[in-house]
Amino acid sequence: MTGDTVLDFLELYAFDLFCHWNLDRTSVVRNHLQILDRVIERLCAQAERLGLKALLVVDHGQERVRHTLNLCRILKGSSVPRNDYLFYIEVCNARFWFFTDAARKVLSNRLSSIEGATFLTAAEMEKYHIHFAESEGFGDAYLITDPGTIFFPHDFYHPLVNWYMARNTPEQAARKSSPVHRGYHGHLPASPVDTGYLSACTPGLKPLAKKGELIDFAPSVLSLLRRPVPPQMAGKALFE
C-alpha cells in the first residue's frame, strides 16, 4: 500500500480455505484469526498514515459441517430415467436440468422433501439476486443445503486430488483422515453463516444505512471513488 493508486483491493482468501479443513480445531483457528487481525491492523494503520480510506469487507462466515447428504443415492432411488435429467453437485448446492415434464415433476417433489436442504426453481433464486436467463442454460432448479450440512460425494471431490492436496498442502492435511470438509459456507443469504459485514477502518466515513447486502459493495466503492454508479447495479451506496 503506497498511496499511488486509486484503489487497492486485497483478498484474504487463505483463511477461508484454511477453515474449510480445520474448523473443528478451535485453538488452531483462533491462532490464525489472531495472525489475520495483526495483518489487518497494520494495513489499516498504513492507510491512515497515507490519508487513505480503508474498508474491511467480510462477505460470509463458516459453519462446522455436522451432516452429509448422499444426493447421488437419493436421485438413483427416484426411479426417474437417468437420460431425463442432468445434475451437477457442488459442496453445498446442486444444479438440475430437466428434459421431460415427468422428470421435473417427480424430482421437484422428491427434492423438496429432503430434510436439511432447500429446493428452489430458477425463478425463485431471483429473490437472492441470482438470475440466469433460460437461454443461458445455467439450470432449471437448485438444491441448497442448510448450514452444517453438505453434499458428499460431490463433483469437486476426486480421490487422486484429495491425496495430492493432503500430501502437499499442510493447511489441508485433514484430508488424510477424511475427505469431508470440516467447515463450509455458501448457503442461502438468509442464514446466519452467510451474514457478513462492512466496516470503515479509518475515520471520516459516515454510514448511510445500518444494513446492506453484498450487491451494495460495488456501488459503495464507486461512490467513495466519486465514480458514477451504472444504472444496472441494483445495490446502493452504504457510505456518505
Can you offer a commentary on this structure?
- The protein is of the alpha+beta class and 240 residues long.
- Helix content is 29%, strand content 16%.
- The chain folds into two domains: 14-65 and 187-224, no CATH class; 67-151, Gyrase A, domain 2 (2-Layer Sandwich), CATH 3.30.1360.180.
- The strands form four sheets. A four-stranded antiparallel β-sheet has the order 4-5-7-6, covered by helices on one side.
- β4 and β5 form a beta hairpin.
- α1 runs antiparallel to α2.
- It starts with 13 loop residues before the first helix and ends in a 16-residue tail after the last helix.
- The model has no long low-confidence stretch (mean pLDDT 90).
Strand proportion, as a percent range, falls in: 15-25%
So how many helices?
6
Low-confidence stretches: none
Helix fraction, binned, reads: 25-40%
Query: Main beta sheet: strand number and arrangement?
Result: 4 strands, antiparallel
Kindly state the number of beta strands: 10
Instruction: Note the gap between the termini.
Output: 24 Å
How many structural domains can be distinguished in the coordinates?
2
| Spatial arrangement of strands, main beta sheet | 4-5-7-6
Mean pLDDT: 90
Shape: globular
